[in-house]
Amino acid sequence: xxLRENLSMLHPQRHQYIERKTAAVRTETLIGDRMVRTIxxxxxxxxxxxxxxxxxxxxxxFFGYLNYDxxxxxxxxxxxxxxxxxxxSPDEIFGQAQDLTTYRKLFERKIRYWDVRPMDxxxxxxxxxxDARVLIGSFCETEDLFIKGKFFNYRELIGSDKPEWSxxxxxxxxxxxxxxxxxxxYNHAPVSGKVVDxxxxxxxxxxxxxxxxxxxxxxxxxxxxxxxxxxxDVENGTGVGLVAMVEIVALMIGRIVQCYSTEQYDPAVPxxxxxxMEKGQPKSLFRPGSSTTVLIFQKNRLRxxxxxxxxxxxxxxxxxxxxxxxxxxxxxxLNVRETIGRAI
Length: 344
Prior knowledge:
Blueprint: H1 2-10, E1 16-19, E2 25-27, H2 33-46, H3 48-54, H4 57-68, H5 79-86, H6 103-107, H7 113-116, E3 125-127, E4 132-138, E5 144-145, E6 152-153, H8 154-158, H9 163-168, E7 173-179, E8 186-188, E9 193-201, H10 210-215, H11 219-222, E10 225-231, E11 242-248, E12 256-258, E13 276-277, E14 282-286, E15 291-297, E16 302-304, H12 306-312, E17 331-334, E18 339-343
Parallel strand pairs: 1-17
Antiparallel strand pairs: 1-2, 3-18, 4-7, 4-17, 5-6, 7-15, 8-14, 9-10, 9-13, 10-11, 11-15, 12-14, 16-18
Helix pairs in contact: 2-3
């Protein structure tokens, strides 16, 4: 009992983040938090077989169907009212907001990012790949990102059969972007450069709810994921070295659709080796749920934005994430195509 009380103090019931535009502290409404905590505590401890079954591809697809495709549950009778409840501006929607009549359509919505998600034109800028809440850090001191147990180990995350990339990103920097269910779920290219590798690693479907992350061991290293390695030291590139973009599925996300576009959303083409991607353009789409994108940079090639570094260790934020000895780590909420750092 004493151990549980201590863990509760280290990982508070509520989870807060910092809104970048205002620097204000916000408390996140965790969707399905009680269910997630039950699965990752009671079920995991007392019924490990059931726990494994719940995280399988089949179960994830079933949950996704119930929430996003089931005719009885997935219809939205008043799309404008739903957008307002979720804090989504109808003005940012690409197309007619009234057409978002199901939860799948709402989740997979397109936005007028060229108007409503402005981007710094400085060639040396690295931008956020998603509307998300971000944690940043460095592997210089350790190869693990600790959040209670381990968030991930970058060698395991990249793949044990890819020693060339493990070596390339040794002691590099990382940024973890957590997308919540109501967010716009297209990923955009964070840098300009040439794709030198892209591959998929099979895995589980752990939830990306903060409660699930702190109760699991390396959840992001265990989940199914797609890795894209981009060389930015090419003509018209960002000049920040190699960048690994790791797109990670989660509970209810069946797959990640690779659909790079040079102009708005069309024509969409698969992401393959040799493709040059322009910074800020749509790269992929998460199918329904909440998920995570991780960027990994080479050592001494990127300088993170000062406000993101300052926010990380703010003392007035209650976060379920912590870095060793219970030191809280605060996420910053930002938009896709916002600057997160610059090439050194």
